[in-house]
Amino acid sequence: MSESLKVLLVDDDPALRGMVAFALESEGYEVDEAESQTTAKAAFENFEYPIVVLDMGMPPHEHTTKEGVDVLNWIGIYHPMTLVIVLTGQDAQATSYVVLKEGAFDFLEKPISESALVLAVKRATLFYQQNQKLRTDEGIQKMQINAPIGEGVKPVRNQAEEKMLRQILADTNFNVHESARRLGLKRENVYYLIKKYNIERPEYEGQ
């Protein structure tokens, strides 16, 4: 990891928070913890977190995804450069569709393994660093300042995400399996992003 990033961990389960914090701190990350929507929002008053690990089911609606989705939406509006990795024990298929649609960077189903979590955070770190470089190299900071009020900079993050995806698809001759491996994503997530950005398979010679 080229630089140490601080991660905000949002989960009402202290045992899980302890496990996740230990795994990430062992990899050189700093970890702050929050146990609710309220404390998660309060944490952002003191620091602009590049990465958030967010549980979907928290009190007072721990049996639904409401609290997690509310936090995800709030981050998307007020901290759109923050990458959110979602954890859930809810219906995986339905939840993954909702959270990816709402702008989550990644999705992990409980029970999670330390290795899968660390891989997801490292992938988010790489993307965040590349995104920061893109903003600097291509003057996206200026675009951010000039963005219409109410739009924020979510379109900028989408632009960086789309550019990275297109580059990897081009490098692999549109091999989704290999692209998913390089990105550390599931193939269905890559297909979702291809559809999201209306990326069409190019015609290669000999095809």
UniProtKB/TrEMBL annotation:
It comes from the Bacteria. It holds the Pfam family Response_reg. Residues 6-125 form the Response regulatory domain. The modification 4-aspartylphosphate is found at D55. InterPro entries: Bact_response_regulator (IPR050595), CheY-like_superfamily (IPR011006), Homeodomain-like_sf (IPR009057), HTH_Fis (IPR002197), Sig_transdc_resp-reg_receiver (IPR001789). Transmembrane segments: none annotated. PROSITE patterns: RESPONSE_REGULATORY. GO terms for biological process: phosphorelay signal transduction system. Keywords: Phosphoprotein. One of its GO terms (molecular function) is sequence-specific DNA binding. Coiled coil: none annotated. This is Response regulator.
